[in-house]
Amino acid sequence: METKKQADLKSLLDQAKHVQMSAADKEAQRRSFAFGNANIENARVTRETVKKQAELMESSADGE
User: Fold this and answer.
1) CA nearest to 27, candidates 47, 63, 54
2) For 7-52, what is each residue's pLDDT tens digit?
3) Run of H or E residues at 62
4) 17, CA 20 to 30 Å: which among 6, 8, 44, 47?
5) Residues 20, 32, 45, CA angle at the centre, nearest 5°?
6) Global pTM?
7) What's CA 40's distance to the chain center, in Å?
8) DSSP string, 2-61
9) What's phi and psi for 24, nearest 5 deg?
């Protein structure tokens, strides 16, 4: 038998399947993910470090 918490979680997961993220939302999530993972390995990595690197990558991609 499914508990209320399990049913609520299932409902939220079903709703999340239909969310359409904007390009800006995807970029913010990508940067957050990059920061979280990099910071685990190296505490000197900051959100600003990730922001600068993302901007460098974006500008180099634009120049290709």
Assistant:
1) 54
2) 999 999 999 999 999 999 999 999 999 999 999 999 999 999 999 9
3) helix 47-62
4) 47
5) 165
6) 0.69
7) 15
8) --HHHHHHHHHHHHHTT----HHHHHHHHHHHHHHHHHHH-TT--HHHHHHHHHHHHHHH
9) -65, -40
